[in-house]
Write a structure and sequence with these properties.
The chain is built from 5 helices and 15 strands. It is globular and about 80 Å long. The chain is 24% helix and 36% strand. It has a 6-stranded antiparallel beta sheet.
Length: 245
Protein backbone atom coordinates (compact mmCIF):
# COMPACT_ATOMS: atom_id res chain seq x y z
CA UNK A 1 0.00 0.00 0.00
CA UNK A 2 1.49 3.36 -1.08
CA UNK A 3 0.77 6.60 0.76
CA UNK A 4 1.81 10.23 0.67
CA UNK A 5 0.87 13.47 2.48
CA UNK A 6 -1.40 16.32 1.41
CA UNK A 7 1.37 18.35 -0.17
CA UNK A 8 2.47 15.39 -2.27
CA UNK A 9 -1.14 14.73 -3.25
CA UNK A 10 -1.52 18.30 -4.51
CA UNK A 11 1.77 18.06 -6.37
CA UNK A 12 0.73 14.77 -8.00
CA UNK A 13 -2.59 16.05 -9.36
CA UNK A 14 -0.94 19.30 -10.51
CA UNK A 15 1.68 17.27 -12.35
CA UNK A 16 -1.09 15.48 -14.29
CA UNK A 17 -2.80 18.82 -14.93
CA UNK A 18 0.43 20.12 -16.41
CA UNK A 19 0.72 17.05 -18.63
CA UNK A 20 -2.72 16.69 -20.20
CA UNK A 21 -1.95 18.93 -23.18
CA UNK A 22 1.34 17.16 -24.03
CA UNK A 23 0.62 14.08 -26.09
CA UNK A 24 4.20 12.74 -26.11
CA UNK A 25 4.27 12.72 -22.29
CA UNK A 26 0.88 11.03 -22.08
CA UNK A 27 2.03 8.37 -24.53
CA UNK A 28 5.08 7.71 -22.35
CA UNK A 29 3.14 7.63 -19.08
CA UNK A 30 0.22 5.44 -20.17
CA UNK A 31 1.07 2.09 -21.75
CA UNK A 32 -2.37 1.00 -22.94
CA UNK A 33 -2.00 -2.51 -21.51
CA UNK A 34 -1.31 -1.32 -17.94
CA UNK A 35 -3.92 -1.37 -15.16
CA UNK A 36 -4.54 -0.29 -11.58
CA UNK A 37 -4.86 -2.95 -8.86
CA UNK A 38 -6.83 -2.27 -5.67
CA UNK A 39 -6.70 -4.38 -2.52
CA UNK A 40 -9.57 -4.97 -0.07
CA UNK A 41 -7.57 -3.06 2.56
CA UNK A 42 -7.43 0.02 0.36
CA UNK A 43 -11.16 -0.11 -0.31
CA UNK A 44 -11.86 -0.57 3.40
CA UNK A 45 -9.61 2.35 4.29
CA UNK A 46 -11.26 4.84 1.97
CA UNK A 47 -14.71 3.58 2.98
CA UNK A 48 -13.82 4.23 6.61
CA UNK A 49 -12.46 7.73 5.97
CA UNK A 50 -14.90 8.94 3.32
CA UNK A 51 -18.13 10.63 4.44
CA UNK A 52 -19.73 11.25 1.08
CA UNK A 53 -22.99 9.26 1.14
CA UNK A 54 -22.95 8.03 -2.46
CA UNK A 55 -19.64 8.15 -4.30
CA UNK A 56 -15.94 7.51 -3.97
CA UNK A 57 -13.57 9.91 -5.72
CA UNK A 58 -10.44 8.70 -7.50
CA UNK A 59 -8.01 11.38 -8.70
CA UNK A 60 -5.39 10.89 -11.40
CA UNK A 61 -1.87 12.13 -10.67
CA UNK A 62 1.81 11.57 -11.35
CA UNK A 63 4.23 10.41 -8.66
CA UNK A 64 7.87 9.52 -9.30
CA UNK A 65 7.22 9.80 -13.04
CA UNK A 66 4.44 7.15 -12.89
CA UNK A 67 0.72 7.67 -13.48
CA UNK A 68 -1.21 6.97 -10.29
CA UNK A 69 -4.81 6.73 -9.10
CA UNK A 70 -5.39 8.37 -5.71
CA UNK A 71 -8.17 7.39 -3.31
CA UNK A 72 -9.46 10.74 -2.05
CA UNK A 73 -11.59 10.80 1.13
CA UNK A 74 -14.18 13.59 1.36
CA UNK A 75 -16.42 15.00 4.06
CA UNK A 76 -20.21 14.78 4.06
CA UNK A 77 -20.44 17.89 1.86
CA UNK A 78 -18.05 16.47 -0.73
CA UNK A 79 -15.00 18.57 0.19
CA UNK A 80 -11.60 16.86 0.14
CA UNK A 81 -10.26 16.00 3.58
CA UNK A 82 -6.80 17.29 4.45
CA UNK A 83 -4.98 14.22 5.76
CA UNK A 84 -1.46 13.09 6.53
CA UNK A 85 -1.85 10.01 4.34
CA UNK A 86 -3.53 9.51 0.97
CA UNK A 87 -3.53 6.04 -0.56
CA UNK A 88 -2.63 5.61 -4.22
CA UNK A 89 -1.92 2.82 -6.71
CA UNK A 90 0.42 2.85 -9.70
CA UNK A 91 -0.55 2.16 -13.28
CA UNK A 92 1.40 -1.04 -13.89
CA UNK A 93 1.52 -4.16 -16.10
CA UNK A 94 -0.58 -7.19 -15.21
CA UNK A 95 1.25 -10.16 -13.74
CA UNK A 96 -1.53 -12.61 -14.62
CA UNK A 97 -4.30 -13.16 -17.14
CA UNK A 98 -7.71 -11.66 -16.37
CA UNK A 99 -10.73 -13.94 -16.29
CA UNK A 100 -13.99 -12.15 -16.94
CA UNK A 101 -16.97 -14.21 -15.81
CA UNK A 102 -20.64 -14.03 -16.54
CA UNK A 103 -23.28 -16.61 -15.63
CA UNK A 104 -26.87 -16.40 -16.77
CA UNK A 105 -29.57 -18.68 -15.42
CA UNK A 106 -32.85 -19.27 -17.23
CA UNK A 107 -36.09 -20.92 -16.15
CA UNK A 108 -38.01 -23.02 -18.68
CA UNK A 109 -41.66 -23.49 -17.76
CA UNK A 110 -43.65 -26.17 -19.61
CA UNK A 111 -47.44 -26.20 -19.24
CA UNK A 112 -49.98 -28.77 -20.38
CA UNK A 113 -53.75 -28.56 -19.98
CA UNK A 114 -56.04 -31.55 -19.59
CA UNK A 115 -59.81 -31.18 -19.87
CA UNK A 116 -62.25 -32.41 -17.27
CA UNK A 117 -62.42 -35.72 -19.04
CA UNK A 118 -58.59 -35.90 -19.11
CA UNK A 119 -58.28 -35.02 -22.78
CA UNK A 120 -55.08 -33.25 -23.73
CA UNK A 121 -56.06 -29.72 -24.74
CA UNK A 122 -52.82 -27.74 -25.11
CA UNK A 123 -49.12 -27.53 -24.34
CA UNK A 124 -46.95 -24.43 -24.28
CA UNK A 125 -43.60 -23.25 -22.90
CA UNK A 126 -42.19 -20.02 -21.45
CA UNK A 127 -38.51 -19.22 -21.18
CA UNK A 128 -37.81 -16.61 -18.51
CA UNK A 129 -34.76 -14.57 -19.40
CA UNK A 130 -32.39 -13.43 -16.65
CA UNK A 131 -32.23 -9.98 -15.15
CA UNK A 132 -29.13 -8.48 -13.60
CA UNK A 133 -28.77 -9.16 -9.89
CA UNK A 134 -26.01 -6.56 -9.52
CA UNK A 135 -24.80 -3.47 -11.46
CA UNK A 136 -22.80 -5.30 -14.12
CA UNK A 137 -22.12 -5.01 -17.80
CA UNK A 138 -22.13 -7.84 -20.27
CA UNK A 139 -18.81 -9.60 -20.57
CA UNK A 140 -18.51 -9.02 -24.31
CA UNK A 141 -19.30 -5.33 -23.87
CA UNK A 142 -16.51 -5.03 -21.30
CA UNK A 143 -14.07 -6.90 -23.53
CA UNK A 144 -14.91 -4.64 -26.48
CA UNK A 145 -14.50 -1.43 -24.46
CA UNK A 146 -11.14 -2.56 -23.09
CA UNK A 147 -10.02 -3.62 -26.57
CA UNK A 148 -11.15 -0.26 -27.97
CA UNK A 149 -8.94 1.40 -25.37
CA UNK A 150 -6.04 -0.87 -26.27
CA UNK A 151 -6.41 -0.17 -30.00
CA UNK A 152 -7.56 3.47 -30.04
CA UNK A 153 -6.67 5.03 -26.69
CA UNK A 154 -3.71 6.97 -28.03
CA UNK A 155 -5.73 8.18 -31.00
CA UNK A 156 -8.25 9.52 -28.48
CA UNK A 157 -5.50 11.34 -26.53
CA UNK A 158 -3.96 12.71 -29.74
CA UNK A 159 -7.24 14.27 -30.81
CA UNK A 160 -7.94 15.65 -27.34
CA UNK A 161 -4.48 17.22 -27.15
CA UNK A 162 -4.41 18.61 -30.69
CA UNK A 163 -7.97 19.87 -30.96
CA UNK A 164 -8.88 20.71 -27.35
CA UNK A 165 -5.49 21.30 -25.69
CA UNK A 166 -6.23 18.50 -23.22
CA UNK A 167 -9.07 20.38 -21.55
CA UNK A 168 -11.51 17.48 -22.00
CA UNK A 169 -9.11 14.80 -20.65
CA UNK A 170 -10.13 13.21 -17.33
CA UNK A 171 -8.70 14.48 -14.02
CA UNK A 172 -10.71 12.20 -11.74
CA UNK A 173 -13.44 9.58 -11.65
CA UNK A 174 -16.48 9.14 -9.41
CA UNK A 175 -17.55 5.63 -8.44
CA UNK A 176 -20.77 4.53 -6.76
CA UNK A 177 -20.08 3.25 -3.25
CA UNK A 178 -22.96 0.82 -3.45
CA UNK A 179 -21.42 -0.74 -6.52
CA UNK A 180 -17.78 -0.84 -5.46
CA UNK A 181 -18.64 -2.33 -2.07
CA UNK A 182 -20.57 -5.24 -3.57
CA UNK A 183 -19.35 -8.52 -2.04
CA UNK A 184 -16.78 -6.59 -0.03
CA UNK A 185 -16.26 -9.38 2.51
CA UNK A 186 -15.26 -11.93 -0.13
CA UNK A 187 -13.27 -9.72 -2.52
CA UNK A 188 -9.58 -10.56 -2.72
CA UNK A 189 -8.57 -7.88 -5.22
CA UNK A 190 -9.96 -5.60 -7.92
CA UNK A 191 -8.28 -4.90 -11.24
CA UNK A 192 -9.18 -1.58 -12.81
CA UNK A 193 -8.66 -0.99 -16.52
CA UNK A 194 -9.20 2.09 -18.63
CA UNK A 195 -11.81 1.65 -21.34
CA UNK A 196 -13.26 3.62 -24.23
CA UNK A 197 -17.04 3.88 -24.49
CA UNK A 198 -19.43 6.02 -26.45
CA UNK A 199 -21.62 8.39 -24.45
CA UNK A 200 -25.11 8.94 -25.82
CA UNK A 201 -25.44 12.04 -23.64
CA UNK A 202 -22.24 13.74 -24.78
CA UNK A 203 -22.25 12.15 -28.24
CA UNK A 204 -18.56 11.31 -28.16
CA UNK A 205 -16.12 8.71 -26.91
CA UNK A 206 -15.18 8.99 -23.23
CA UNK A 207 -12.58 7.21 -21.15
CA UNK A 208 -14.12 5.15 -18.37
CA UNK A 209 -12.90 2.60 -15.85
CA UNK A 210 -13.89 -1.07 -15.85
CA UNK A 211 -13.47 -2.95 -12.58
CA UNK A 212 -12.94 -6.71 -12.53
CA UNK A 213 -13.36 -8.17 -9.06
CA UNK A 214 -12.13 -11.49 -7.73
CA UNK A 215 -13.74 -13.36 -4.84
CA UNK A 216 -12.32 -16.06 -2.63
CA UNK A 217 -15.60 -18.00 -2.59
CA UNK A 218 -16.06 -18.10 -6.37
CA UNK A 219 -18.49 -15.23 -6.74
CA UNK A 220 -20.50 -16.67 -9.57
CA UNK A 221 -21.60 -20.03 -8.21
CA UNK A 222 -24.57 -19.02 -6.05
CA UNK A 223 -26.94 -17.34 -8.47
CA UNK A 224 -30.64 -17.72 -7.99
CA UNK A 225 -33.05 -18.55 -10.84
CA UNK A 226 -33.61 -16.01 -13.60
CA UNK A 227 -30.61 -13.91 -12.66
CA UNK A 228 -27.42 -12.90 -14.40
CA UNK A 229 -24.34 -12.14 -12.34
CA UNK A 230 -20.88 -11.00 -13.32
CA UNK A 231 -17.51 -10.04 -11.88
CA UNK A 232 -17.23 -7.14 -14.32
CA UNK A 233 -18.48 -3.66 -13.39
CA UNK A 234 -18.45 -0.32 -15.16
CA UNK A 235 -19.45 2.44 -12.82
CA UNK A 236 -16.85 5.18 -13.14
CA UNK A 237 -17.91 8.65 -14.26
CA UNK A 238 -15.02 10.72 -15.66
CA UNK A 239 -14.50 14.36 -14.79
CA UNK A 240 -14.59 16.12 -17.16
CA UNK A 241 -17.25 15.96 -18.43
CA UNK A 242 -19.20 14.46 -15.51
CA UNK A 243 -17.93 16.77 -12.79
CA UNK A 244 -18.96 17.52 -9.25
CA UNK A 245 -17.32 18.94 -6.14
Amino acid sequence: MSNFNHESYLAAIQSWENTISRYSEIERLIPLYNVFSLSPEQIQQINKEDEDPKNFRLDIGIQDDVLIMILVPRDAKGAIKILENYTYVNLAPLDHDLQLKEIQQYTLINRSVLSKDLTHMSTDSDLNFPILSRPAIEQQTAVKEIEDWRMSGMDWFLRECNEFDGKRIFRRFFISKEDLLQDESSTTNITCSFALKFSDIYQRMLVSLIFISFQQNNLLTNAGPDFSISNVFDYARPCPPVCQL
